[in-house]
Amino acid sequence: MSNAPPLPTAGRGAKKPASQRIPAIAQPFVSDKARKLLDIIEKWVDEECIPAQAVYAAQVGTGDERWNGYPSVLDDLKKRARELGLWNMFLPRNHYSNLAEYDRYGGAGGFTNLEYGLMAELLGRSTIASEACNCAAPDTGNMEVIARYGTAEHKKKWLTPLLAGEIRSGFLMTEPDKASSDGSNISLSIRKEGNDLVLNGSKWWSSGAGDDRCKIFIVMGLSDPDNQDKYKRQSMVLVPAGTKGLIIHRMLSVYGYDDAPHGHAHITFDNVRIPASNLLLGFGRGNEIAQGRLGPGRIHHAMRSIGAAEVAQEWMIARLNDERKIPFGKPLREHGVLLEWVAKSRVEIDSSRLIVLNAAIQIDNGDAKSALTEIAQAKILTPTMACTVIDRAVQSHGAMGVCQDTPLASMWAHIRTIRIADGPDEVHLNQLGRRETRNRAQECIGRLQAQKQTSEELFRRYRVPDKQLGGSKVQGFTAKL
Amino acid sequence: MSNAPPLPTAGRGAKKPASQRIPAIAQPFVSDKARKLLDIIEKWVDEECIPAQAVYAAQVGTGDERWNGYPSVLDDLKKRARELGLWNMFLPRNHYSNLAEYDRYGGAGGFTNLEYGLMAELLGRSTIASEACNCAAPDTGNMEVIARYGTAEHKKKWLTPLLAGEIRSGFLMTEPDKASSDGSNISLSIRKEGNDLVLNGSKWWSSGAGDDRCKIFIVMGLSDPDNQDKYKRQSMVLVPAGTKGLIIHRMLSVYGYDDAPHGHAHITFDNVRIPASNLLLGFGRGNEIAQGRLGPGRIHHAMRSIGAAEVAQEWMIARLNDERKIPFGKPLREHGVLLEWVAKSRVEIDSSRLIVLNAAIQIDNGDAKSALTEIAQAKILTPTMACTVIDRAVQSHGAMGVCQDTPLASMWAHIRTIRIADGPDEVHLNQLGRRETRNRAQECIGRLQAQKQTSEELFRRYRVPDKQLGGSKVQGFTAKL
Amino acid sequence: MSNAPPLPTAGRGAKKPASQRIPAIAQPFVSDKARKLLDIIEKWVDEECIPAQAVYAAQVGTGDERWNGYPSVLDDLKKRARELGLWNMFLPRNHYSNLAEYDRYGGAGGFTNLEYGLMAELLGRSTIASEACNCAAPDTGNMEVIARYGTAEHKKKWLTPLLAGEIRSGFLMTEPDKASSDGSNISLSIRKEGNDLVLNGSKWWSSGAGDDRCKIFIVMGLSDPDNQDKYKRQSMVLVPAGTKGLIIHRMLSVYGYDDAPHGHAHITFDNVRIPASNLLLGFGRGNEIAQGRLGPGRIHHAMRSIGAAEVAQEWMIARLNDERKIPFGKPLREHGVLLEWVAKSRVEIDSSRLIVLNAAIQIDNGDAKSALTEIAQAKILTPTMACTVIDRAVQSHGAMGVCQDTPLASMWAHIRTIRIADGPDEVHLNQLGRRETRNRAQECIGRLQAQKQTSEELFRRYRVPDKQLGGSKVQGFTAKL
Amino acid sequence: MSNAPPLPTAGRGAKKPASQRIPAIAQPFVSDKARKLLDIIEKWVDEECIPAQAVYAAQVGTGDERWNGYPSVLDDLKKRARELGLWNMFLPRNHYSNLAEYDRYGGAGGFTNLEYGLMAELLGRSTIASEACNCAAPDTGNMEVIARYGTAEHKKKWLTPLLAGEIRSGFLMTEPDKASSDGSNISLSIRKEGNDLVLNGSKWWSSGAGDDRCKIFIVMGLSDPDNQDKYKRQSMVLVPAGTKGLIIHRMLSVYGYDDAPHGHAHITFDNVRIPASNLLLGFGRGNEIAQGRLGPGRIHHAMRSIGAAEVAQEWMIARLNDERKIPFGKPLREHGVLLEWVAKSRVEIDSSRLIVLNAAIQIDNGDAKSALTEIAQAKILTPTMACTVIDRAVQSHGAMGVCQDTPLASMWAHIRTIRIADGPDEVHLNQLGRRETRNRAQECIGRLQAQKQTSEELFRRYRVPDKQLGGSKVQGFTAKL
Fold first, then answer.
1. What's one GO-annotated cellular component (chains A, B, C, D) (predicted)?
2. What CATH class does D169-284 carry?
3. A291-423 is a CATH 1.20.120.450 domain
4. Vertex C289, ends C288 and C295: CA angle to 5°?
């Protein structure tokens, strides 16, 4: 960022620490332990992670070197995170049986979804903070899956180094030629051959697969294509990186970003052979695993997006107070249209946060089924909100906003993908709308009918004609009954 | 409603009672007492008030009779409300010193703003429920004002019958030729003459002034035009209806609705003389009173709008399931665009509710000053949301939606005015944006500068050049430092 | 309007006459004759019709008198219109065979759809101008229908007095319990009995039926329910007002407006008997007639809406320059948000106008079939645009905007119905989208495939590998072929 | 594109050639010569340019090589363009005095702004077509400037090779620390020293400066800082690439895209010395030149954006008809929400095109001053429209839409910058709103006042009371006069 125009001059200000900015309505749900950690996280993210981002970018190579090696600044941030007690906060203690091992790696978990959600918002302020405290997707979901459904062997081989942040992992679900929003469309084939499983097919958008440290993939495939229940046709298996036949084709870009060194890979499976013991949970139970992964994952994504939106709002506020920007004789902070943007962004960010936190509490209450609507609301509302807020900040920065001199353009591009990942908005809107329309049909029709009937009784009781417009024009305009 | 096309046929459904539909995040804030009342209110509103609305409308006269008399069905509903223990729920017990009198009238108050907010949502489902349990604006705010600032004499003469629901009241603030969004623009003159106060000027949008039972007006006027503090120039006084010189000019319509028998009056003050003892709180303290009125009032308005939006959503759901509406061979509930509307409305209603409830808690926490932003958010977000939701329901009903056969058109028109009343949205957006932009300037600039500085230190420490795009094209492309 | 607050003081300005404000791109299509008339119409509308609106409203009775009689000021305006040569401009000369009669009534027709469209915009500035020059719906469409499809007898009895502006007419299509957007849903029964036709069923939204001068209804009914072609099941007939069994039930309101004395009627047909000679065009040809009616009618509606939007814009400009409105120390015209509204409205009005004019030319080019898309665009774009523009003007007027003191609230309510009338927006959007998606499928897929194929040939020819992101990470990263 | 999933299978379709798709309303303005060229351009763009884009991308190097060399496929396309008579179409013949030279390079110019606008739309379908026929920005504007204001020497040295497509050029206006939307903020200093001019300062967003063939920059600077007229303080000069002291700092990215080999450069001027003869037009006349450049340039940009939007629409249509995409049992083309997107995009594209074409005609009519509003409309409406249309196409493609497998993500990012370039939307909206609000104040207020006055006269003439709502409630309710 050092060639970029200098920032406007101004003294340091202060804001209340994160623990004191929790919305009034959410406060009863946050433990003291979580409050303390929130303030540590915020300080670490703002003072150590964000400034390290430019160094991280500079440590990534160019040309073919771009996909090799690993920025050392991130390893240092990881060390520092563990010193601060910031490690694996995402992992609910109850999902992980081998506590000794978990504790060995300094796990700071055991938080509710609401509490970790508040932390995820702070992590979302930085592009590298989540990874630096071992809370980055898809590792978080993958660790949960192995902790819940993996065998002791799986845990030893994959979960232990993942918990330690020594390796990373991929999650292979989406396929290039399918409407992946409908899980029953998966077509990568998993065939049993003796004690082996043989995989053939294609996956893409495997985020993180470019990373040299990515050592294990969780892969969803079609194992029982003839099963009558179309949601029991799929299984999930563990495929080590480097397995023969697993070919990384190419990396995909997000708008113009290649996201090296992690990247988003397009991968082909050409007779990839793994031991049958690499199966997770059981044949035909892939969707079961996938479902459990979704709720909390969506909360995390949503809260990180909110964190990004807050960063955008702060860049915008700084810009509006930049004393060198005086178009048409009036500083930017005097332009009513821009002030309205700030206000709208504030309302939209805050209402999204409440929606997500309410969904988190619903999950925490243990009734994931009843949280379906709340999670969908969080999924639908948040990325669009964040894109809108960030785009306002881009626009207020002019040409500076679309280039590398602020984090805005990159944040926008990456949050834009969340409107697509894990089902496009339209699928979630459709399901939410369908559910409400169907489930409440009887109730709504019934009530309106009952009200109409009661109303007619009242007309009789009060002996009043049901006057309608029209006066003498209306034929037979007399008392109604 | 009886000439309207019949409703679609379907059995009665059921929904969980109101007390069980409180958002998870708000539950810690609702007492058992409030929960019980919520369920009673809901039942009463849906089963008794809403069906009585058409009778109420029919009991209002036509032509010149339109502004005389009073629908008897409403008096019966009032009686019923008191039987059910639904009376004056809006009034916080602490504001009312003479508890004996309050209790005599069956006051069911003592609720927090959050609790009463949840009740107001249910009352907002009906156009007459609020009045039927003595919780209608502007009486609510007026009673609070007299309870807080009135003398024993004021209370005896006006508060007692208001609490009993025997009389109604008006609140005269807005003036026709002013930008009323700025309180310092008030120009109705209040002049002291001996022991009297003499009022001259003009007020409009005095809601309820058409009602025969409207007996007292609280009037804001300019009493000290030369005061250096422009917010100390105004005073508030009590003017009894029928005082000589107080002339109701005409009634104003809202879109095409005249809202008889209450109406919205344009009133002229022509040397209206009242005793000086009718002054409230003290000379120059009008704005002080006005400010205290705003917070809770905005919560009530917002929650009633949410109640109306829920009713619209229910009409829409009933419509989508109407078996007689099969355009182009597909029932309405199969049309994706309409399902998306239902989903969006659900998300928008629920997020608005959380914003308002959070603001209510902030007020309940006793820190009205710090609730400024939250109240503004509720004020900005809710009426626009409700108008949008209702308009979707209108559109899905086709021609039926714009006429008297549903409550939709009327609800839309009245909630549309809330985007203007008490300051147009744009004023609130501007103030909210300005506050955030100014208050956070130092903080945001400071943090970005500190981050930049830390980043530069890191570049030195890691001895990495700050690579920028351009490769060999860039002159002097070497390590940065 | 006389009790309303006075208008801001300012001198009279001037604008270029209508003929000089025709968009550059439309100028080649406007004859000198039309240009001259445009300027006369504008002057007459602005200087005579608009000022007469308040008198018209005051001449309509109250209570039961509301639906009787006829405002004399309108008859005077009609007289004046004929003096100015403004009469029946809507009627294309070619549709009317008996020119002598047409000319006798001072018909100023023979204009193209584009030319009359420009006139309709000016007429749409006033609520009464269209009727005052005998160009009001539904008479315009009805006159065209009788001119085209009526017998000599029909013409003598109904067309002659309609052309003379002595009677008015209704058009009965929409039914209360149907998805009327799909014409094949019509259910009012037309049964042949000897030489008679017997009608049974129900119609609503019969605009103008409240008017004492409304003497003839064109009614669409179901005459051949078993016809295999579902668009040949309907017929159109002429039913004189006052026929036995034709019962006006009640009048419908539009957002509180009853639109007396014309109104919108809900009508029942109870064994209404008419001579078979009242059939138009032929049995089963109702849809054929209906279709021909739609194109030009939609252009007229759209252009009138644009005229209303221009009036709203003018009220808004006047408001922003009102010297008495200085909220927060800055006149309204200095508030950036409001200036942006003015600008957006200007862009939206002007682009809508071009869309409608382009559709009009497409119809004028004689190829109504190919104008389908263009007409749909005009139908979709214009009323939503006009509602948006008017709503901005309402909001900028504050409380004044929603009441009777400006034409804004009423204009909004009535244009809001155009988003529903003649098929809700969603039906037109769906059909437009479906048509483009289907018709262009082959073309679009074909071109993309051909481009891909050519691209692959070029890769071979240029001997260049199809590099993808990923560098050394990608297995088998070599030249592609 | 060859690793991307294959396109859906379908036969080639056909569409009417470009010359037959000109909107009806624009047809009178297009010459036969232009029509012929339109069809050639369309074929060449679709069949030769678009397929070459992937080869072009592959010919750009990686790593440091990225900014060197030049894709040979583009040189071949240039050759082909000249064979087809497609060269320098942008240049109005009248601006270029030395016709012989112009003709020598196969110039196909002499078109109106409307005609070239239609061509630009077709060129905008491809990322490389404009350059391939020597019609790419900023060369187009630069050639016009030199043709108009350059000396014979300038023309010989720079215009001749630019016309021949042998070199390229840059335009340096925007500065990093300024609100560049206000031209008077330019601060790069131009100081006279003897017969030299010395430049000091900084410019960024110099598009094309990365290109090896970029040989000349037109630079705007501050030459007379004390001039009372702040728009006469600036001058424009010609600075050859490679001049000592002109340092390319770095290249800027656009949402991750580096746009190599052209790029967007950040350039420092450190005592750059040029002969005073490199001054254009005269001291202090920089703004004069800049103004003349804007109108046509905005039309070109706008039309190219429309071309891109059409491509996005075609990708979307192909996607909706992709037989492999059947989410939830229904092909995408049956999903109502997506069909509505197609329809809205069609309406928005077509209305934007009419707005731009109307502006082009206004310029062609020779009255650039009166075209101010029309050009602003085109500038405001088009890029936002195109971004919306493209974003719909992205969303309908799911993950495929954000990566390199379609042109959508890249098109979006680049058109997004047009909402900023040459003044952000908000500046243009503000100016447009301000102009209309001010210029029409007198006219609008005057007309409303005159109408009110006439209305009052009519009330007297018709002897009717100005009834207002309120009936007997209103005191003194009698005839008004």
1. cytoplasm
2. mainly beta
3. no
4. 95
